[in-house]
């Protein structure tokens, strides 16, 4: 591997480590209560070096959301590409989201506790769905394909999007707050059934 390519790979790995560490701190302490020195300390690196990767806390916050959306979007894309019926796809989509919430809780926590709560941070460059476009694209494809095949009702995009993502975000929030009576995955089938019934013709 050429030296340049190896250097770039190491830089991207370091960038991902910063994103994941900052994501966890922001979700735990809150965006405004977390400083760049806090993040640098958790990474055992200098603040100056941290700024070499991200010029500001705001830019880092946006990059975390883009990273999270890409990761989750890739998982949803795999579901969309499966050659199976839409009932099964609905179940797999729900399970994929919940599995991510269990395996990488800091990512979903960040979306629920930072992105949705501190919208003023995401105004410049993250307007609308700009920073979550990967997830929005895959949900759009899922719903649109279902409508095209006569499986789902043709409805307003925003109501369809909330019909899918609202229950998922809600159940993960309750899970994170310790309010559920059962393990998170035990709710997957019933959630999928509710979403299926709400979308279908």
Terminal residue distance: 53 Å
* Largest sheet properties: none
Topology, number of strands: 0
CATH architecture assignment: Orthogonal Bundle
Specify the helix fraction band: over 70%
Whole-number count of domains: 1
- Briefly note the structural class of the backbone: mainly alpha
The name of the CATH superfamily reads Tetracycline Repressor, domain 2
- Computed over alpha carbons, the radius of gyration is 19 Å
Give the percentage of residues in beta strands. under 5%
Q: Quick check: average pLDDT?
A: 92
Q: How are helices and strands ordered from N to C?
A: HHHHHHHHH
- CATH class equals Mainly Alpha
Regions with little confidence, pLDDT below 50 for 5+ residues? none
Give the CA-based shape: globular
Number of helices: 9
| CATH fold naming | Tetracycline Repressor, domain 2
């Amino acid at each position: 591997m050429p030296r340049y390519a190896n250097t770039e790979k190491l830089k991207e790995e370091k960038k991902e480590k910063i994103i994941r560490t900052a994501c966890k701190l922001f979700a735990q302490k809150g965006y405004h209560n977390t400083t760049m020195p806090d993040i640098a300390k958790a990474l055992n690196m200098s603040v100056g070096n941290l700024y070499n990767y991200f010029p500001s806390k705001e830019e880092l916050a946006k990059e975390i959301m883009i990273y999270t959306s890409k990761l989750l979007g890739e998982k949803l894309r795999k579901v969309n590409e499966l050659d199976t019926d839409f009932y099964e796809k609905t179940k797999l989509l729900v399970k994929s989201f919940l599995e991510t919430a269990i395996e990488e809780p800091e990512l979903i926590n960040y979306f629920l506790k930072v992105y949705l709560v501190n919208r003023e941070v995401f105004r410049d460059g993250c307007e609308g769905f700009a920073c979550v476009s990967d997830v929005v694209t895959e949900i759009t494809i899922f719903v649109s394909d279902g409508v095209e095949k006569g499986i789902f009702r043709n409805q307003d995009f925003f109501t369809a999007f909330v019909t899918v993502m609202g229950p998922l975000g809600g159940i993960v929030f309750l899970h994170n707050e310790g309010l559920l009576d059962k393990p998170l995955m035990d709710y997957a089938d019933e959630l999928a059934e509710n979403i299926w019934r709400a979308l279908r013709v």
